[in-house]
Every structure is written in structure tokens, then in C-alpha cells.
Inverse folding.
């Protein structure tokens, strides 16, 4: 119950929405994370310009939104079954930044719907992996702004560790101790950055649609599937299909896929615990701890699947064609 409430509050705070037929909206100065205005045929996303991207952003969010869509279109053209909403206008006006895009009639993929699971495996997954088929091989650690070892050591010393239940604290220590390596060479490619069942949808015409491109950036390809897998269950048929398709695409052992998500979850839970340690507000502190525990549980499950998966690329995988990139990762 507490986890559900914490995640719901976090979602509502991050994604406020308004449905309106108004011709104009006046934004108060307290609109920091932005609002969305839904009209019959278009959606208008608006944010306070001063709070849109933090300090010294590399690119405004509405630029990333447009560049990500263009990247997918340039790479796949009309050969893909994935569609993205068209952008009609974007920019800055007075104190706000905005993006006006096509509004499509969409429904979310249901993780409990067998037909949607097969659609994800047989159609969505091959098209996604085609988008990532020209990767750059980089050390996994290069994705993080901090040194992985230092983050984990700081977390082990933080005050939150004393507040966790003994089993929870032992789980964190166990995952740190059993980490087989803190680095590995893996494929990086530009991706949506927030691939989840809230952003991967179906149109009324049966098209697969990706929305919300503001987080688009280059990162390890495996991380694109983290939030997409979890609703179906770690170890589920969707997870197995993604892992095996990834292994064949990049000619890499499938255990490297799970190890990346294991390490990523460990770092993300550490960040939540460190954030909680610095919070003076008890409610915010509890919320960060709960989020950290949810991510930690997923990291533990990925650690278990990494141990049990084959150390070789399976011979019978035919979900996608192998990538043409001849580069091989270090083993």
C-alpha cells in the first residue's frame, strides 16, 4: 500500500494534465514541471522556461523532442511500424517553452493482455532493435556522471542504511558484494530515454506509437527495455524475448543484458537512498526510501536472471536479424 501511494504521488507530481477547449491559458509562476493541454486534434505541452531543464541544459526539452522523432524517421523511414506524433510548432514565448503536436487516439499496451504481449514481442521489438542497429561500443560506466564504486560506498555509509529492515539492508549488501564487475563494454545508441507502457501505445488503427521524446538521448541500449519489461515481470516471456533478441542483435551473451539492468538498478536505488539521507522532510524521505526499495527489488531479480541465463548466444533465436555492425564487445 505504501509503495503504491508513493509511486502514485510521484506520478501525479511529475505529470499534471488538463483537458480544455479554451483558446488561451494563463500560467502561474508555480508551474515548474509543466502542463499538457488536450484539444480535439492537438496536444500543447507548456513549461516555465526558467524551470524547464535545470541549470545550463545542453538542449531545451522541445529540441530533444523533435530531434528524437527525426532520428527514428531518418533511420527507418517508411519501413517501420512505429509511428510518432507530428510536431506542428515548438519554441519559446515570453516566459514559457512549448511544443504543439498531433494528438492521436491511443490506448496503452496491457501487460495482462496476451495479444498485446505477442504484439510487443513480434512487431514492436524487432522495429525497436532496428532503430538501435548502429551502436557505439562504450564502457557501461561512461553512462554515469559519478564513479560507480564511490556511489555504492557512499550509500553503504549513509544514514538510510540504518533505517532499512535487516533483510532489505542485507539485500543491498549482497548485491554490492556479488557484483561480478562494475564495468563492461556494451552497445550505446540514441533512444527514447523513457521507454515504458505509458509511452509505448497503440493507435486506433493498430499502429505502434512512441510518445514523449523529451528524454531522448544516447545511452546503453539495454536500459531502453528496463521499464518496458518490469510490468510483464522479470523472467517473463517478454523479458526472455527481449534478452534473446538483444543477444542475437549484438552478438553478445544474454547475461550481459541482465547484468546491465542489475547494475543500473543498484545505482538508481543508491541515488534514491542518498537523496533520502539528505531530506529533512520526513514524507519526502520516506518516499525516496520506498522508491529505492522498489528499484532494489528489481535489481535483485535481474541479478538472479543474469546468473541463470546461458553464457552463449542461443542458436534458435529468430526474433530479429543480426546487426551488420562488425564491432564486438570485450568479453
Amino acid at each position: 500500500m505504501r509503495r503504491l501511494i508513493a509511486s502514485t504521488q510521484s506520478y501525479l507530481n511529475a505529470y499534471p494534465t488538463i483537458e480544455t477547449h479554451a483558446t488561451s491559458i494563463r500560467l502561474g509562476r508555480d508551474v515548474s514541471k509543466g502542463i499538457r493541454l488536450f484539444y480535439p486534434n492537438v496536444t500543447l505541452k507548456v513549461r516555465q522556461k526558467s524551470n524547464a531543464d535545470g541549470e545550463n541544459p545542453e538542449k531545451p526539452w522541445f529540441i530533444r523532442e523533435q530531434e528524437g522523432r527525426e532520428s527514428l524517421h531518418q533511420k527507418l523511414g517508411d519501413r517501420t511500424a512505429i509511428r510518432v506524433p507530428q510536431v506542428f510548432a515548438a519554441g519559446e514565448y515570453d516566459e514559457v517553452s512549448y511544443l504543439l503536436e498531433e494528438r492521436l487516439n491511443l490506448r496503452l499496451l496491457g501487460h495482462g493482455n496476451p495479444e498485446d504481449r505477442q504484439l510487443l514481442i513480434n512487431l514492436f521489438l524487432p522495429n525497436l532493435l532496428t532503430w538501435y542497429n548502429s551502436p557505439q561500443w562504450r564502457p557501461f560506466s561512461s553512462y554515469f556522471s559519478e564513479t560507480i564504486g564511490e556511489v555504492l560506498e557512499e550509500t553503504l555509509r549513509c544514514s538510510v542504511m540504518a533505517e532499512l529492515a535487516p533483510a532489505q539492508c542485507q539485500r543491498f549488501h549482497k548485491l554490492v558484494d556479488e557484483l561480478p564487475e562494475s564495468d563492461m563494454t556494451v552497445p550505446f545508441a540514441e533512444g527514447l530515454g523513457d521507454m515504458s507502457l505509458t509511452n509505448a501505445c497503440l493507435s486506433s488503427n493498430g499502429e505502434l506509437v512512441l510518445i514523449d521524446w523529451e528524454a531522448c538521448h544516447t545511452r546503453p541500449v539495454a536500459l531502453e527495455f528496463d521499464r518496458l519489461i518490469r510490468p510483464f515481470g522479470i523472467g517473463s516471456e517478454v523479458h526472455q524475448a527481449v534478452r534473446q533478441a538483444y543477444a542475437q542483435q549484438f552478438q553478445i551473451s544474454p547475461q550481459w543484458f541482465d547484468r546491465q539492468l542489475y547494475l543500473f538498478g543498484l545505482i538508481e536505488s543508491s541515488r534514491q537512498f542518498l537523496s533520502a539521507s539528505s531530506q529533512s522532510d520526513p514524507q519526502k524521505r520516506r518516499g525516496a526510501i520506498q522508491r529505492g526499495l522498489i528499484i532494489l527489488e528489481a535489481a535483485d531479480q535481474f541479478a538472479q536472471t543474469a546468473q541463470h541465463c546461458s553464457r552463449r548466444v542461443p542458436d534458435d533465436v529468430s526474433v530479429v536479424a543480426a546487426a551488420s555492425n562488425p564491432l564486438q564487445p570485450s568479453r
Summary: Residues 310-331 have pLDDT under 50 and may be disordered. Residues 282-308 form the longest helix (27 residues).
